[in-house]
Amino acid sequence: MMSFFQGSNLFSGKLNKLRTMALGVVFVGIIIMYLGYAGYAGFLGGLFQGSGIFMSIMMVIGLLLTVSSFLLYFWVGMLSTRAVQVECPTCRKPTKMLGTTDDCMFCGQRLSFDPKYASHSQDSQPQS
Fold first, then answer.
1. What's the count of helices (H) and strands (E) in the chain, helices before strands?
2. In this structure, is residue 23 part of a structural domain?
3. Which of 17, 72, 94, 126 lies 20 to 30 Å from 26 when distance is taken between CA atoms?
4. How confident is the model at residue 63 (pLDDT cuts 50, 70, 90)?
5. 120 is a domain residue
6. pTM tops 0.90, yes or no
């Protein structure tokens, strides 16, 4: 089962990091809204039971987080259309780069347009 996860790198590449963060914000927003209702219904004890103000505040905070996640997903989509697509020298798969340095979305290899940040390996050395 562990070999299934070895090939995928969830947090490699700037685009994947932003997408993962947006997904986390959606979950946090939904959990906050659920806790607001659970407090109103009395599942969190008698302190917030029947308190419409507590439920309303939690619902608004959760809604704002969910809407901000939508905006973050939209922004990442716009960034993805402008990202430069390159071929990774390690895994030979096409990946998108943001900025001058980024990681391959598949293998995590550090990629760079700037020669001073390029990784020096046996394959990338010029032949003399």
1. 3, 4
2. yes
3. 94
4. very high
5. no
6. no
